[in-house]
């Protein structure tokens, strides 16, 4: 079984389209931001 951990502190600019998918969690740390007019989607999905 593969287990990876990521902690996100990215800042997305206007008009960015970002999708994160994970099996159990998507931790967003202080400083994370998605600017107005950007699209950010985080989805918890089971393993395929």
TrEMBL record:
InterPro entries assigned to the protein according to its UniProt record, in alphabetical order: GCX_COOH
Name recorded for this polypeptide: Uncharacterized protein
UniProt source species: Runella defluvii
Taxonomic path: Bacteria, Pseudomonadati, Bacteroidota, Cytophagia, Cytophagales
């Amino acid at each position: 079984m593969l287990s990876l951990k990521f902690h996100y502190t990215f800042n997305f600019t206007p008009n960015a389209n970002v999708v994160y998918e994970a099996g159990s969690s998507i931790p967003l740390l202080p400083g994370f931001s998605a600017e107005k007019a950007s699209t950010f989607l985080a989805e918890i999905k089971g393993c395929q």
